[in-house]
Amino acid sequence: SRVKDVELLLQNECVDKVRMIGIHGVGGIGKTTLAKAIYNRMFRLFDSSCFLSDVRSEAEEFGLVKLQEKLLRQILKIEDIKVGSVAQGINLIKARLESKKVLIVLDDMDHKNQLESLTRERSWFGSGSLIIITTRDKRLLCRLGEKERYEAKLLNDNEAMLVFCWHAFDSHFPPEDYVNLARDIIKYSGRLPLALVTLGSHLQGSSVDEWGHEFEKLIAIPHSDIQKILKISFDGLDGETQTVFLDIACAFHGFDEHEVTEILNACGFHAKSAIATLVQKHLLQRIGYHLVMHI
């Protein structure tokens, strides 16, 4: 399982030093679920622990100082901690946590300043501590070693069928009348866990005919909850990279990368840079020499 894969990475590291693991992948692939599973299995092994959910939106809405306060409150179990500035928060984290063996999960990070203000240096934490980071942007993990980074994988066909059927039928397998439609919808989902859960729940209790109509509609108009998750990554791009993404999605899906790069460069874009960004942010993937959308 994916939990075992991450645990194997952790076993490669010395348990006495401060370990860091970065989990990266496209939105909706299950990074948060994986981090929660590891956290729940391991938190009792530490002096204290903290799971900071949705760091991206918390930082955007409340700022980095509030995140620093939240981290300190959860780890130290003290409610009245006040931080005056990011610099003061860094000093407090170093001073109060350097002797503690802690487990910290920073979920859904999207900017370097979040990492810098919360867990920039391993020396801030006590021996044996573990820091887990989840992100859509692999570049945020550039300071981690190769064996400290884990790319969250899509489900295989059997796993995808189990997840979808559990939410659509409360069962491990579809009724006979639904088998072909279930396979079509799983293929449409790209085996992305979020899409499987959302679509299975959406279709639960509907007749075969209703499933057929809904599937036709989905092909034309993707489900809003899935669009919302994927749009977060898109909104984080600059204007030119957004345009390159849309051009590839609409006109060059599955095309040879060299050919696409030449065409887009001729249109005045910095195609190599934009494509590299899209791959790093898991909005695009390379299969052989070809560029393919995730979903």
Automatic annotation (TrEMBL):
- Keywords recorded for this protein, A-Z: Leucine-rich repeat, Repeat
Q: Where is the AAA+ ATPase domain?
A: 17-160
Molecular function terms, GO-annotated: ADP binding
Query: What InterPro entries is this protein classified in?
Result: AAA+_ATPase (IPR003593), Apaf_helical (IPR042197), Disease_R_plants (IPR044974), NB-ARC (IPR002182), P-loop_NTPase (IPR027417), WHD_ROQ1-like (IPR058192)
One GO term (biological process)? defense response
Q: Record's superkingdom? A: Eukaryota
Name the UniProt record assigns to this protein: NBS resistance protein RGA10
Organism for this UniProt entry: Nicotiana tabacum
